[in-house]
Design a protein that fits this description.
The protein is of the alpha+beta class and about 725 residues long. The protein folds into 3 domains: about 25-310, polyphosphate kinase like (2-Layer Sandwich), CATH 3.30.1840; about 330-510, 2-Layer Sandwich (Endonuclease, Chain A); about 515-700 and about 710-720, Endonuclease, Chain A, CATH 3.30.870. The protein is built from 21 helices and 31 strands. Strands 16, 20, 21, 22, 23, 25, 26, 27, 28 and 29 form a 10-stranded mixed sheet that branches. Strands 12, 13, 14, 15, 17, 18, 19 and 24 form an 8-stranded mixed sheet that branches.
């Protein structure tokens, strides 16, 4: 077997391995399998009813984004006659055909789940009204509501030569009515587009919760909109458009370019026309012609369109049908230092495990930097910051206090472009130096750097995260926040910012690996070391936790490691193109996916370094990067080595091990691409439940030496055990 290497020591071809069709799963179909696992949680009897409805809603919003970005990209390749093959060797045309069937099956499955949930919710006192009969009081209230709140914003439009076909925005929902004029019997086609300003669902008054979708409300009261007409039929439809923004290399002004591109997104090519079951054939033909469908998917289904809108119903005040509230802990380490983040970090490195530990620590770190007269500079990356960001407020306060503040704002954060443009404008008005990074590469690294005057010199404090500086998602995403005052990390972070702001490529870093410079090479070096150990007959083990694994070169490296005898255990939440357990290729690789109350989001790599994992000598890293080609070669990312023993133990012996031990929320990937839910076992183990009830290690400080100990986790023949 021979490795053909490029000049950068990255394999461009690996001879002796099976063809791509035999060693890679299709990326898009793997994503749909992930969304099916999300949907499966909507029927999980261990979850409260409204939480199950939440998973159904999430599966709907996930599918919308998938259609608007991934499927839209493949359709564009077909239109442009681009024959770029997928990772598993399929043409765009072949993929589009396979996706049509898979998406249709997923939508049908969503409707089956919704039908069952509606019955269960009704038994629990929450009614989602479809064709249900209404009592007199309900009917009267809805009629009054419709006339007062809905009619004024609706605009019925006749579809004929005198009335041009209206533009239907992305994610727009409409109803076509077939009418007959009473006066002369003439047929008339009318369209009503549902304005996005109207609520997706309307709640009827009363202690018993009753909700009606806005399209059902309009349909039921159509006679009020069309006096003098007989309604012969109606049909609801929804449109999704291509929403990806391609950045042109010669874009002279990124801000202006993105402001224009966001507007263009509304008018992207239609990628999905979703019709209600039994939609009138003539009306369908009209839509197909007027929307100029070109390699778009047309799907008919029963039930509710825009299933993501069920998120409104979840807000119903029924705590008995939701998870018990959870309030994250504030790390005792910080409190022991009277809330002084710098003092706690200066003492030793620490890691904060979100959402179990509060994101307020990160905000307090920045607030303290803004208020501290000894702080001279703050540098910060911003990928997604949310709509009401305390992080932005802290940076503005720092600039107004006279600090030197630099913010790297990523304009290419999909679907957050507009929000990021707004934050950038606010930051600039406050005196923050705003940098937009590279035209071709996204800045995805999560880094905050504070320079403080201390002892006649300067000390740099750094925060490295696996997730965004987003206070809302930090309550539901599992992520790691690593704080350090290690001067080597500070120097590397400074080089990272100079790279992004001034294109000054680091010649050498002391600890950090940076993508697209040397992150890939660092991972390969770690993998190759385990291969060398395996060939010498020594223990060789790799553990990794990722959100996606799609990079073919990285996957091939893992295959080679497996063939050499390295034991590999992967936790990949979403897309996984690697085929585990294939004889002669990946016999020593296991892949699992965890779907549960929280969204697993942290990225971790661990290498045994000559002993079985977990062990004290293991090489452990956290990262902002997933195992995708874009993260390795088209984004600015960081791979952070963990040196502090307590932090090392927490990430490896707690976080990583707990992910491997989980049985209650885990799915195993088979060599055929099918996922099978783990048997809970006896005893069973719930990763999220464990961290909700057991404090982390590095955040406990002196509390570790007194009071309740943190239970240790251990691997015993693949079962979950606590020692």
């Amino acid at each position: 077997m021979a490795l053909v290497m490029s000049a950068g020591e990255i394999p461009t071809q690996i001879e002796g391995l099976p063809p791509v069709q035999e060693r890679f799963f299709n990326r898009e179909l793997s994503w749909l399998a992930f969304n099916r696992r999300v949907l499966a949680e909507a029927v999980n009897p261990d979850y409260p009813l409204l939480e199950r409805l939440r998973f159904l809603s999430i599966s709907g919003s996930n599918l919308d984004e998938f259609m608007m970005v991934r499927v839209a990209g493949i359709a564009a390749q077909v239109r442009r006659q681009i024959d770029e093959l997928s990772i598993d060797g399929q043409t765009p045309q072949q993929q589009l055909g396979a996706l049509l069937d898979a998406v249709k099956n997923l939508i049908d499955a969503q409707q089956d789940v919704l039908a069952d949930l509606k019955d269960e919710l009704a038994d629990a006192g929450i009614r989602i009204i479809d064709n249900d009969a209404l009592n007199k009081g309900e009917a009267e209230w809805l009629r009054d509501y419709f006339e007062e709140h809905v009619v004024p914003v609706l605009t019925p439009q006749a579809i004929d030569p005198a009335h041009p076909f209206p533009f239907i925005a992305n994610q727009g929902t409409g109803i076509l009515f077939q009418l007959q004029r009473t006066a002369d019997g003439a047929p008339v086609t009318e369209m009503i587009l549902i304005p996005p300003a109207l609520p997706r669902f309307v709640r009827l008054p009363g202690s018993r919760a009753s909700w009606m979708g806005i399209e059902e409300l309009v349909r039921r009261h159509a006679t009020l909109l069309f006096p003098g007409f007989k309604i012969l039929g109606d049909g609801t439809f929804r449109v999704l458009r291509d929403s990806d923004i391609e950045v042109e290399e010669d874009a002279e002004d990124l801000v202006r370019y993105f402001r224009t591109a966001i507007q263009r997104r509304r008018r992207g090519k239609v990628i999905l026309l979703h019709l209600q079951e039994n939609f009138d054939a003539a009306a369908e033909k009209l839509l197909r012609e007027q929307l100029r469908l070109d390699h778009a998917l047309v799907i008919k289904s029963r039930g509710l369109l825009a299933i993501s809108g069920l998120s409104a119903v979840i807000e119903e005040d029924r705590q008995d049908l939701k998870f018990d509230p959870y309030n994250p802990r504030y790390p005792e380490r910080i409190l022991e230092h009277d809330g002084d983040c710098f003092s706690a970090i200066r003492e030793k490195d620490l890691v904060i495990h979100h959402p179990y530990e509060s994101f307020e620590v990160v905000i307090d770190f920045l607030r303290q930097a803004a208020a501290d007269p000894d702080v001279v500079a703050i540098k910060q990356t911003l990928y997604r910051a949310g709509k009401q960001s305390a992080v932005i407020a802290a940076l503005i306060a720092a600039a107004e206090a006279g600090k030197s503040v630099t913010a790297v704002v990523e304009l290419k954060a999909r679907f957050d472009e507009e929000q990021n443009l707004m934050w950038a404008a606010q930051l600039e008005r406050a005196g923050v130096q705003v940098i937009y990074g590279f035209v071709d590469w996204k800045t995805h690294a999560k880094v905050s750097m504070v320079v403080r005057r201390e002892g006649g010199g300067y000390r740099t404090y750094c925060h490295f995260g696996t997730g965004n500086y987003h206070p809302v998602t930090a309550r539901i995403y599992t992520d790691l926040s690593f704080f350090t005052a290690d001067p080597r990390m500070g120097r590397d972070a400074g080089q990272l910012f100079n790279f992004v702001t001034g294109y000054v490529e680091p010649k050498q870093t002391e600890l950090l690996a940076i993508s697209p410079i040397n992150l890939r090479e660092r991972l390969y070096e770690c993998i190759e070391r385990e291969v060398t150990l395996a060939r010498k007959g020594r223990p060789a083990t790799i553990w990794a936790k990722l959100n996606q694994l799609t990079d073919p070169d990285l996957i091939d490296r893992l295959y080679l490691a497996s063939m050499a005898g390295v034991e590999i255990r992967l936790v990949v939440r979403g897309i996984c193109c690697l085929k585990p357990g294939v004889p002669g290729l990946s016999e020593t690789i296991e892949v699992k996916s965890i779907i549960g109350r929280f969204l697993e989001h942290s990225r971790i790599w661990a290498f045994g370094n000559g002993a079985n994992l977990p062990n004290k000598r293991a090489r452990v890293f956290i990262s902002s990067a997933d195992g995708m080609s874009r993260n390795m070669g088209r984004r600015v990312e960081v791979l952070v080595p963990v040196k502090n023993p307590t932090v090392h133990d927490q990430i490896l012996d707690q976080v990583m091990l707990a992910n491997l031990l989980d049985t209650e929320q885990s799915w195993e990937l088979g060599p055929d691409g099918e996922y099978e839910r783990f048997e809970k076992g006896d005893p069973s183990f719930n990763l999220h439940g464990y961290f909700m009830t057991n404090p982390s290690l590095s955040g406990r400080g002196a509390a570790l030496s007194k009071g309740r100990k943190v239970p240790k986790l251990a691997l015993r023949r693949g079962a979950a055990n606590r020692g």
